[in-house]
Amino acid sequence: MDINTSVKKVRGYQKGMEKITSASLKANETTAAKWNVQQMEIGLRSDGKSQPNYSDGSVEYYGKEPGPVKLKDTGAFHESVLRKTKAKKDVLEFTGDYIKDNAGGRTDLEKVWGPIFGLTKSNLEKMTDLLFEDLVKGLRDYWK
């Protein structure tokens, strides 16, 4: 490879990194959504804090399992997170059907329960590792 070819490759390096990162985010969006739902299933917010425990009334009257709020009644909300979390160019956009219609009106789950969308620090570190592996592989392929 001559110097001019090398210079062109270096100039394309950033664009190549962006493409690799976008492709990796797209390839891992389902994994990220599953991790987000798994956090919810154990009553963990995206900031790493636990949800408050279900009230005695919720446990006795509604049959909720004692422990932190899991944001799961029918499973439709968790399914919506799996379906709607998407990679958008260079970010993962976590979302779901978080506006819940009920007898008292409408409830915004995120306003009531805090930061529910996104990954905890430990899951974010795992996602970073996945993205880094893809980036290294992509860059090796790029420089072949």
Describe the structure.
The longest helix is centred in the first third of the chain and has 39 residues, at 3-41. 16% of the residues are buried. The strands form 2 sheets. The protein has a two-stranded antiparallel ribbon with strand order 1-2. It has a two-stranded antiparallel sheet with strand order 3-4. It is 57% helix and 10% strand. Helix 1 (3-41) runs antiparallel to helix 3 and helix 1 packs antiparallel against helix 5. The chain has 5 helices and 4 strands. The chain has one domain (14-142). The protein has helices spanning 3-41, 56-62, 76-84, 109-113, 121-142, and strands spanning 86-88, 91-93, 99-102, 105-108. The chain has 144 residues and is mainly alpha-helical.
Defining traits:
144 residues; mainly alpha; two-stranded antiparallel sheet
Query: What is the straight-line distance between the termini?
Result: 10 Å
Strand order of the largest sheet: 1-2
Order of helices and strands: HHHEEEEHH
Work out the number of β strands. Answer: 4
Largest sheet: 2 strands, antiparallel
Describe this structure in a few short sentences.
57% of the residues lie in helices and 10% in strands. The chain is mainly alpha-helical.
Itemize the secondary structure elements and their pairings:
Elements: H1 3-41, H2 56-62, H3 76-84, E1 86-88, E2 91-93, E3 99-102, E4 105-108, H4 109-113, H5 121-142
Antiparallel strand pairs: 1-2, 3-4
Helix pairs in contact: 1-3, 1-5
